[in-house]
Design brief:
With 146 residues, the chain is an alpha+beta fold. The protein has one domain: Immunoglobulin-like. Helices cover 17% and strands 50% of the residues. The chain contains two helices and ten strands, in the order αββαββββββββ. The strands form two sheets. Strands 1, 2, 3, 4, 7 and 8 form a six-stranded antiparallel β-sheet that branches. The protein has a four-stranded antiparallel β-sheet with strand order 6-5-9-10, with no helix packed on it. 25% of the residues are buried.
Length: 146
């Protein structure tokens, strides 16, 4: 049951992000950091409740995962993850990131506030367990009122 909910969450997040984000990963050596951001209203109430996510037209969910190895044979990697968000007015804030583990899966979730039609710039910094240098990624996401 838990594995099913995890797969549903990942499918929803990935499926919603594909049209909006052309490149949603960054590779560094044998590591790949996957990232996306979606309105929390895109999640079903059950999925949001299961993961403690606030469904609101004023909130976006950032999802990050870190994988090591070749596609299909890769493994989840624990990491220290930080996310900062900046709106087009230059207002910047750090987001609270929490780790979620289910079986062998590890992912990191954060929620950002959005106001109507808004474009946000996200900066992600990931330091995988055992690494000495962080992997950085940045992306811009446009949100529309729902």
């Amino acid at each position: 049951m838990i594995r099913h909910r995890f797969l549903v969450l990942i499918a929803v997040l990935c499926g919603l992000a594909l049209p909006a984000v052309a490149q949603n990963s960054v590779r560094s050596g044998d590591l790949v950091v996957h990232y996306n951001a979606v309105p929390t209203t895109s999640l079903t109430p059950d999925v949001a409740r299961q993961y403690g996510i606030t469904r609101s037209a004023n909130r976006a969910l950032v999802n990050i995962s870190v994988r090591r190895g070749t596609p299909g044979a890769d493994e989840a990697v624990p990491a220290q993850v930080s996310v900062a968000v900046t709106n087009l007015n230059g207002q910047r804030s750090a987001l609270r990131v929490r780790e979620v583990r289910e079986g062998e899966a590890i992912y990191y979730l954060a929620e950002a506030r959005i106001q109507g039609h808004e474009t946000l710039d996200f900066e992600v910094e990931v330091t995988p367990e055992g690494a000495t240098a962080p992997v950085q990624a940045s992306f811009r996401q446009e949100f529309f009122p729902q």
